[in-house]
């Protein structure tokens, strides 16, 4: 789904990428890596949930600082930040469940309300939720706040469907994938609002990616394909690196013309 910017654009460059097919592929890959990498670091590397959370939160803060400080869209920096947000969003949900005993239903509802609050505050302040108008620091702060909440919300929603409701990873992935397809259909066939369609699809890609990640990495006894967190994370990271490299090269070629 691609939205028009609308209104006048300031002299600052937009800080987020164009919404294309490659954008959605990288986004889904990043959501899957967020699920599997968090499990890999906490479990396979034995950093524990607490240690992994501190490490990833620190890396995210550094990446966010560099991203916000930058005056233009830099593919590798933007997508590195998205991957780290995905991991931290997963860890936020996991900490609430495993360490604080909060139910998946409560987490899903809480983050849904938090996201709604961010959208209301964002629109009240800027009169737009368009990602094609992220050309001020304030708008970018709203943008990343919304992104972080969508990842935490998506993690909880994916786990709620697959584990809480006992639907299993494959069924959950098909349900969320079907909902994404429905959003795509309503946007292109019925001309649904572009900004609303984008954000709904963006939210749904998180539980879809999380369900796919668990389906690939979890053991057969848990309903997965037993590919492991190491292999799954490595393959998806390589795909992300390849696509981001393609975007970087294309940006350089366009700038040279």
From TrEMBL:
The chain crosses the membrane at residues 21-41, 47-66, 73-92, 104-122, 142-161, 167-190, 197-217, 223-249. It comes from the Bacteria. The keyword Transmembrane helix applies. InterPro entries: DUF347. Keywords: Membrane, Transmembrane, Transmembrane helix. It holds the Pfam family DUF347. This is Membrane-anchored protein. It comes from Collimonas arenae.
